Sequence to fold (981 residues):
Amino acid sequence: MALAREIYRAFESIVGSRNISEDLGIRETYRCIPAQSSAHFGPYDQKTPLPQAVILPGSTEEVQQIVKLCNKYKIEFKASSTFWATMGYIGSDCAIQLDMRRMREIEIDAKNMTAVVEPYAIGATVQAEAMKRGLTLNIPGVGCSSSPLASTAGWAGFGPTSIFMGCATENMLGAEWVLPSGETLRTGSVGAGSGWFCGEGPGPSTRGILRGVVGTTGTMGVCTKVAIRLHPWPGPDHIPSVGDAPAYRAVLPDNFKGYTLCFPDWGAYANAVNLFHENPDILFLGHRQYNKFGRNLKVAMIKILNDKNKQLCDLPALMEDPVTKKQNEDMKIDVQVILAGMSKRDMAFKEKAVDTILEETGGWKSEFMQEPDIAAWNLMYLLRLGHKNLNYTLCGAYEGTFGLTGNVFVSSSLMEEASALKRKWELESDCIAAVGGDSDMGSISVMGGGGATGWEFFTQFDAYDKESIKNTKLFADATQEWMTSKGLGVDFCRWNEDARRPDGYNYTQEQHDEMYINLPQPHVTAYQYKVREAFNPNKLTGSYYRTLTPEKLKEQD
Amino acid sequence: MALEDYRAMMERCSNCSGCKWIPFDKIKSQRFSENCPSISYYNFNTHSARGRFQLAQTLLDGDCEFSPDVVEAIHNCTACGSCDSTCKITRYNLEPLDHNLALKAKAVEEGYALPEQKPIMDSLQQEKTMLPGELRSNRLHWASGIDVKDLMKEKGEVAFYPGCKYSYNEKLKPVAANALKLLINAGADVGIFGSADMCCAGRALQMGFENDYEQQAKANMEVFTKSGVSVIVTPCSDCYHAFKRQYAKLGLDIKVMHLVEYLDELIQDEKLVMKNRVPMTVTYHDPCHLGRLGEAYVPWEGKEKKILNQVHTWEPRRPRYNGADGIYDAPRRILQSIPGVELVEMERIREYTWCCGAGGGCSQTNPEFASWTANERITEANATGAEAMVTACPWCEESFMNAKDEDGNTIQVVHLIDLVLQAI
Fold:
């Protein structure tokens, strides 16, 4: 469907002819194939709908004018920064796609330890700019190639450094927010003309509406600027990186140490994680990272990634290598941590604290991960967190399954059962990569100071192989069934299943009503319906914002 | 490989955005963090390697056509291979650059070349150069006055192959002449191909004209073989890549060296001694086709094999070109051997260097885009505080000679050979 000439020209007059396209081929490259991205959705092989136009705004004013036009002509819109996840794409045929890549400013306020970022400033660039000022930011699990603004304003936003730096909801300060109606609202202190230092005031505090806990995935208008809290970086003004591609290594001073902590059983693991939660000053970073490659593969994969001459075809031989096998067994139940000393004394305290926790729980440090080159590679990997992309190394596509997010004692006690279920599928069906069952990974804490862990089982499949996609979805059905039987809630790859239909389109209100009336707490979505009515009267931003028609509650009563 | 043969790669691309940035581990600032001139200039996702995978998939499915915008997007790729190197930081089974070239070839095959490409290809056919307006009869003017062997008439060990830019460009001709004289003075048994000297046609391949390229490559290979030389030395990075990587696929079995490699060996063997002080702070620009695309071709024939259910590999092991083994150290060693020269590095170097803008024929077909790309590099060079930018490719050199940084400043552009000449 093409936009009417009058409407197209109106959009064009806002951004200029260079920054808008309705060419079919150009628009086709703005459709998401969920099987190719980790989307907490699917995996599905259908494309998301074709936008009527792709528009690249260059300023808040342009965004505002575009959104006002969308309201005038009742055209849906969705803004995305890096277009990684399905949630950033439109969900109807009557919609335009906003590509925010022209808006990428980063403004660091070192004194107040904040950064004001625009949508296309990615984690790596914000971190690089912050490091020049002795600061850094929490880069969520999605990795440094994604937009901190998107994670902060629109999604959960926890990651490896959350134990030290908190998650998105904790780090979000003021925002410049183009509401779905086209008005621009500045939230928190900036709304009162007092700078960006606070999200709650003076000025309007809208955190609960703009993002809530999990985030509204860009369905409540367009954030054009967000202020985020920065954190101390006791290192050089950039991460010195050496080595041959792809094995880049960080050369950092002695106040940075990365360890892989290993445990004899899950009970010991849980006790150690709990001690870190109770003593949150110890860790700069805590993440179960390399297990994403799978229990049987992780050391072999680390060796491949650290040798420019090795390839994936070397996996079988490496996995059979007795030394690798022993190193792998040593790291069977593991977690990666980084200590960053703010002073020599601080570093000594942290080292001692880690040793004490290991002593108390019967754990040990992996010697393999302490080999100098591997240790330097590990530091590079975890501190910059380009790791989202390594998530794809094995098969090209993956989805998170299970999702054992919560209390570490609950999740760890179920780890072997979950692993056994996955291993059964690996052996009985060839739809997913056979990696040893346990491919659990995730943050030691999803919140600042320690608390619930955020885990998922990476499940790698082949997006080119239709059977692999189809049967991976069946595997997700099985993991959801298991999750439900254990009272663990929604499987990780189903988080957005109620937000977008399998065919890639938005749900209708009627379909959402049928779903949400059966929620344990349907009033929440009925409340959100009213919020949407106030902020988004023309319903222009898709069905990721979960709403239940309030009348349905009355009917139920 | 035909475009259709890249289907699996198109669908296995992870949409991770790696192709739009220098390796994340190497980012030192936002200003110099991007790697792909095409998407950096045009901004639409279509202009990235990811976008091109998706566009090709759509074209093959018949869901879109070769519209003018699509044709522009396909051809406005400098074929610099930056997307390829960064993709391969994490992926072991995608070939974004080869795919981009296959997409260009498909467009050309279907009749969707750019109008600006026609005179270039006509010139290749008629005058054996991809520089329209230049005549074959003038090709050897750069060497006039130099007493050098004609390898088609007498035997020699080393062939000096200047390439079209050094043969015709008035400002660049002295580089070729000086380089040849230097080799002769160093005692090399060197000659030129005389009237048989022709364009390497590497740019034809970069623009998607596969048949023209192959025809010209085979004609050149015949000349090379007939001459009986054992080494070809070229100061042009484009020619170097064409011979070393592309001609090798067609069976060229003669050692190929870039001039910087040859000079580096002469210096290591103490056949060339740097005596004079050249007090200058310089920065070095890695030409794409010498650096990340300068790895030698390794013959391979095999097929895909899945292991561990869904991990796709190749049997036998397939060569992996990720830029790790490009020519980076030789030019730096030469610079470091010159007394007084101080090398200061830009942020984007080696396998993640920023393109000069001339690749893929873009400086000839889309000068505005090429010029913007070169200007970006001059901005980066000037940020180092260097007095001059040194490079080892005539296409880069020409691009930078005409470029200005974001504040309107230029930088002195020097070929490595000129510094060496001052030092010996």
User: Anything to note?
Assistant: Residues 210-227 of chain B form the longest helix (18 residues). Chain B is about 40% helix and 10% strand.
